[in-house]
Amino acid sequence: MTIGEAPGPQIDTGRLLLRPPQRDDFDAWAAMMADGEHVRFIGGPQPPSVVWRGLMSMIGMWASEGFAMFSVIEKASGRWVGRVGPWSPHGWPGTEVGWSLARDACGRGYAFEAASAAMDWAFVTLGWGRVIHTIEPQNEASKAVARALGSTYIEEGRLPEPFHASPVEVWGQSREQWLARRGAQA
Length: 186
What we know:
Helix content: 25-40%
Strand content: 15-25%
Distance between the termini: 34 Å
Structural class: alpha+beta
Largest sheet: 5 strands, antiparallel
Strand order of the largest sheet: 1-2-3-4-5
Shape: globular
Radius of gyration: 15 Å
Number of helices: 5
């Protein structure tokens, strides 16, 4: 491991590489978070200084907790296309696998591909008993990904401060449901 990298695994899917975030991901991460209309469902646009703190939080969570969202790298091009994976900061409504992709990476099935690999890892390696997805009620694209993963709507919830003002939909499934579904697909 070198300076600027978080410790952790790499997960290879058909088209993607999931790895812990690195300082070198900053420019692409900041570009995604500057796309105001595109990130409206995940807190809205952020200036580079806030994106930097978010990226460093992910790297720090990997070092401290042994998990956080992965950076998603498109294998064909080598470029950073988003962040997907386990997330459970203090006060969160559960153990989440979430996803955010750059606008030009959407519509290719990357969210499903990366989230499936991250859910496998969270259930098998981390031993989680349940995975949730917190979704802004108007975010139909994320609801479609959740449905494709086999998750269902559970309840209305709230995120901790500073995101507590607006309700979110909590979707999810148990480890047993996920493994049964994955076994049926094998």
